């Protein structure tokens, strides 16, 4: 079977020579069935001086190999296939970035000292090396994707790849566009939109909203202008803290990420044996959306799992879903990246911006606002898009191949997997349009 045409590259959250450090995964612990498609893992060196290596998972598009593990609290979490995995129609390359995230590591502690710019350049290095070693996929349409803070880095990465293509960089990837979900921009609009959002959904009162407008203005809420403004914003933050920030209609649950120990200063570097740090996350109720995150800790820290994934022993002492920012010396060294969106859309790249409209962390109001600032003509005005005859969200398309769509929570595919599966990487379809009518997507599997 020829390889599928579409390879989205997703930064989550999403190594010596890749040619020397690949692992073909034949099975996964906890999965009592054959893998639906080929899975490869590996490392790619992105910083020769410090020995920094990014770990990746590559899943070919020939089935639906996703994991949604139930767990009994004693044995290894069991895996099951996810019916709405995007790997049903796309090859997906997941990367643990920046260095220190997931199973990515550095042989020198200085290798963890990265930021927006340096980690983006390392991802460029990763992409170039990966496609050098996987030349059979160079012709495939290539998309970059990320959510939340990664939504800030995606345009930086696409901009650099685009520039390299224009000057004849090798290998040349078939870059077609990118997608960002509830994306941060580094602009004050991300935070400022929380106030009108909180008011619009009824979390804060008219009186508090009017007090904020009167004493704080309509922007730069991170820097209170006076004592009354500060008091009003403190009250605002207290009220917003009463709801689940990632999805205001869901149960408020534990974040399921570890807190740093008092004596923890960073990742352990190449210990001879696996070191137990005992950063086991708190167990949330099973009906919490964060429960699978809790399970992932036990699955990823199982020695059998690590062996099957080809994790080099001694590189990562204990896998955790998210490290507190105090554990990694990461620098937010870029400002607003809205101009990068303008640069890329003006070059004709296809762009999907999707926004879970129940997310209060990066509210859709701010995302809509910066998209309007681009001042692009509308070619398909605001309308509903549908799944199984029901509205799944709302969408609008602009003349520069930029589509905005709503539906779900902060990480929309996590909260609305069926809807986001139908969204198909940027095509919130008109009622009645069939998946086979979409351009640039080859149907695979069932």
From TrEMBL:
Its EC number(s): 3.4.16.-
Keywords (A to Z) from UniProt: Carboxypeptidase, Glycoprotein, Hydrolase, Protease, Signal
Keyword Isomerase: no
One record GO biological process: secondary metabolic process
Signal sequence region: 1-19
Pfam families xrefs: Peptidase_S10
TM spans (from-to): none
Superkingdom in the source lineage: Eukaryota
Xref: InterPro entries: AB_hydrolase_fold, Peptidase_S10, Ser_caboxypep_ser_AS
Example of a GO MF term: serine-type carboxypeptidase activity
Family of the protein in this entry: Belongs to the peptidase S10 family.
The protein's name in its UniProt record: Carboxypeptidase
């Amino acid at each position: 079977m020829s390889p599928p045409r579409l390879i989205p590259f997703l930064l989550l959250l999403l190594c010596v020579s890749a040619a020397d450090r690949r692992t073909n995964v034949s099975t996964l612990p906890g999965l009592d069935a054959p893998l639906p498609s080929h899975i490869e893992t590996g490392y790619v060196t992105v910083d020769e001086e410090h020995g920094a290596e990014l770990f990746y998972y590559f899943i070919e598009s020939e089935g639906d190999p996703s994991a949604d593990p139930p767990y009994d609290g004693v044995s290894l979490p069991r895996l099951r296939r996810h019916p709405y995995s995007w790997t049903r129609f796309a090859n997906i390359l997941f990367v643990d970035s920046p260095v220190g995230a997931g199973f990515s590591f550095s042989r020198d502690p200085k290798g963890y000292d990265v930021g927006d710019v340096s980690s983006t350049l390392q991802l460029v290095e990763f992409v170039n090396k990966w496609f050098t070693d996987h030349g059979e996929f160079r012709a495939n349409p290539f998309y970059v994707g990320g959510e939340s803070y990664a939504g800030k880095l995606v345009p930086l990465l696409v901009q650099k790849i685009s520039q390299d293509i224009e000057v004849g960089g090798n290998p040349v990837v078939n870059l077609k566009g990118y997608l960002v979900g509830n994306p941060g921009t580094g602009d004050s609009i991300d935070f400022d939109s929380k106030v009108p959002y909180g008011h619009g959904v009824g979390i804060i009162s008219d009186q508090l909203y009017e007090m904020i407008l009167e004493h704080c203005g309509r922007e730069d809420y991170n820097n209170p202008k006076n004592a009354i403004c500060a008091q009003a914003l403190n009250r605002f933050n207290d009220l917003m803290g009463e709801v689940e920030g990632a999805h205001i209609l869901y149960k408020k649950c534990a974040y399921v990420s570890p807190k740093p120990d008092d004596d923890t200063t960073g990742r352990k570097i190449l210990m001879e044996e696996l070191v137990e740090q005992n950063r086991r996350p708190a167990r949330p109720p099973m009906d919490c959306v964060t429960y699978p995150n809790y399970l992932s800790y036990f699955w990823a820290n199982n020695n059998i799992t690590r062996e099957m994934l080809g994790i080099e022993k001694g590189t990562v002492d204990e896998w955790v879903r998210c490290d507190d920012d105090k554990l990694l010396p990461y620098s937010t060294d870029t400002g607003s990246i809205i101009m990068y969106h303008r640069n890329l859309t003006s070059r004709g790249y296809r762009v999907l911006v999707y926004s879970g409209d129940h997310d209060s962390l990066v509210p859709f109001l701010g995302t809509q606002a910066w998209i309007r600032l681009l001042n692009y003509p509308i070619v398909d005005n605001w309308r509903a898009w549908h799944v199984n005859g029901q509205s799944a969200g709302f969408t609008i398309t602009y003349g520069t191949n930029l589509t905005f769509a709503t539906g779900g929570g902060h990480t929309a595919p996590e909260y609305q997997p069926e809807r986001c599966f139908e969204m198909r990487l940027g095509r919130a379809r008109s009622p009645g349009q069939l998946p086979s009518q979409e351009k640039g997507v080859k149907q695979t599997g069932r």
